Amino acid sequence: MNEFLPLFIRAGKLLRGAADDAMSRHGVRIGQNLVLEVLWGTDGLTPGEIAERLRVATPTVVKSAARMEAAGLLTKRRDPADARLVRLYLTARGRAVRGPVEEARHRLELRATATLTDEERRHLRRALAKIIAEMERTGPTPRPAMGDTDTGAAAPHPPDPRTAGERASEQA
Fold first, then answer.
1. pLDDT digits (tens, 9 = 90+) for 54-87
2. Long-range own/partner contacts, residues 81-85 (CB < 8 A, 24 or more apart)
3. DSSP for residue 163
4. Distance between terminal CA atoms of the chain?
5. Residues 6+ apart with CB under 8 A from 134
6. How far, in Å, CA of 95 to CA of 138, rounded?
7. What is the mean pLDDT of residues 134-151?
8. What is the pLDDT of residues 83-102, one digit of tens each?
9. In this predicted structure, what is the pLDDT of residue 142?
């Protein structure tokens, strides 16, 4: 049996849990730290611009931004030049958590890689970057075509994970 995928998934779950614990000590949820990181670099972006930089769907950022606004980390304002656009701006609290969040992330990285040599750390970073690039390049795993299942029965069509807006923008 191939051990890569179970090991990768287990490591991901453990790291995600540890990161969520570390971030929550500063009033930040896992994933929100990534939105904050983008805004720390360039404040006042739209959810779509943030989503593009993080390579996630815009509705994911919109949902996270609503929670972050409720937590006092950012504020939403209409774009003065185009009122259809909403821009996200850090609050004083959103700026203040930068140091503690960056420190927590650094400590977590040190903890996760504590038993690795410097060479193994470099190799791991390169290998993960290659895995990410390949998965982004090839997209989701192709599903069997109709009738290409082991039983010979027609394969069901899975629901389309894209939002109606995403499907409409692709058709335009």
1. 999 999 999 999 999 999 999 999 999 999 999 9
2. 85/46
3. -
4. 44
5. none
6. 37
7. 67
8. 999 999 999 999 999 999 99
9. 64
Evaluate whether 143 touches 158 at the Cβ level (below 8 Å).
yes
Q: Which amino acid is at 147?
A: G
CA distance 52 to 38: 11
Cβ neighbours around 154 below 10 Å, total: 12
The 10s digit of each residue's pLDDT in 147-164 is 444 443 333 334 444 444
**Which run of H or E residues covers position 141?**
none
Burial class (CB in 10 A: 0-12, 13-18, 19+), 73: buried
Find, among 109, 89, 112, the residue nearest to 39 by Cα.
89
CA 149 – CA 77 distance, rounded (Å): 51
User: For the purposes of burial, counting CB atoms within 10 Å of the CB of 23, is it exposed (0-12), middle (13-18) or buried (19 or more)?
Assistant: buried
Tell me what pLDDT residue 1 has: 55
- pTM over the 0.70 mark: yes
